[in-house]
Amino acid sequence: MKNNLSASLEDYLELICNLLETSSCVKAVEIAKKLNISRASVSEALVKLADKNLIIYEGHKGITITPEGLKKAKEVILKHNTFTSFFENTLGLDKVIAEDNACKIEHVVSDEVFEKIREFQLYCENNQDFIDKFKKGKNN
Amino acid sequence: MKNNLSASLEDYLELICNLLETSSCVKAVEIAKKLNISRASVSEALVKLADKNLIIYEGHKGITITPEGLKKAKEVILKHNTFTSFFENTLGLDKVIAEDNACKIEHVVSDEVFEKIREFQLYCENNQDFIDKFKKGKNN
DNA sequence: CAAAATTGTAAGGCATGCCTAACTATTTGT
DNA sequence: ACAAATAGTTAGGCATGCCTTACAATTTTG
Asked: Which of A36, A48, B72, B96 ranks highest by number of CB atoms within 10 Å?
């Protein structure tokens, strides 16, 4: 009953959730293409996610996410978006760099740090002049 | 000739560097105790670090760090300290939480993000009232 | 509706990084 | 110096997560 997902499985779940936003039927082959890994590896991962009751996977019928899986996916996605936004909007980093780093950090950061960054970012948004001054510095 | 270290090897190197600050002779068994892993695992890791010319390891004689290893170690340690300080001093998080998260993030963050955080933290230090106001908020 | 294309699975491999158990080498202490 | 304690290594195992190759199932399409 260990609910802890590896970084890898979190990535799969996150992607599945994102793909389900736009299409009602997600196939394993799509995931393989997006993550640039083999169909076989995806197949293995999907079995693991299904074992953990995070998705329902029935081969050619496509992938469905369970309520539990959705909850977990949303958590990861929120972390992802929070860090991406912090890096891009608050710190003024390049979008791609912001995304790349958020993608890694989302899997290792604790809830406390995540929450605090969230708060801090909100605080910064309400003090845009402070951030603007930073961005105008010797940076860029 | 791939110079990329795994998170695990970076941790070993970082610890070796830190231990060499206070004692001139570091033994594998010390590392095993500090990282709470088996002597066997440490032995394997040290062979890998030596293969990459980051340390000089001759069994019972102890571990020495090479200039190359020192350079790499200092980089990781700087990232570690930067994130720890950002979390603890700037965001006002608990020291232990700050350390734990820095320990993970230091291995996955890119140089660009690291540098920017460094700059930002410096900027915040010069605007302590802004940070104090944040810390006094509904947080804590 | 059957051949072709697509999609999915199984088997066997590889690397990392950890483990334990058993062994060897070195150091320490009397 | 030699027995005991400490330190290090080797061998074999396990889990994760990726790979390729080959095969099976399904869907598409002529």
From this structure: B72
Asked if residue B1 is part of any domain, the answer here is no
The yes-or-no verdict on residue B1 having pLDDT over 70 is no
**Which candidate, A77, A83, A75, A57, places its Cα nearest to that of A3?**
A75
**Cα B27 from chain centroid (whole Å):** 19
Query: What CATH code is carried by the domain that includes residue A11?
Result: 1.10.10.10
Q: Which residues of A touch B87 (CB under 8 A)?
A: 113, 116
Residue A2 lies in a domain: no
Give the tens place of pLDDT for each residue, A41-85: 999 999 999 999 999 999 999 999 999 999 999 999 999 999 999
CA A17, C1' C9: Å apart? 23
Of B39, B33, B44, the closest CA to residue B8 belongs to B44
Asked whether strand D has any atom less than 7 Å from the CB of A27, the reply is no
Q: Which two tokens stand for residue A112?
A: 């406390």
Q: Residues 6 or more apart from A110 whose CB is under 8 A from it?
A: B97, B100, B101
Domain CATH number, residue B99: 1.10.60
Q: Does A97 touch chain B (CB under 8 A)?
A: yes
Give the domain range for residue B110. 74-138
Nearest residue to D10 via alpha carbon and C1': B40
pLDDT tens-digit map of B2-42: 578 999 999 999 999 999 999 989 999 999 999 999 999 99
The continuous run of DSSP H or E covering B57 comes out as strand B55-57
B88: in domain: yes
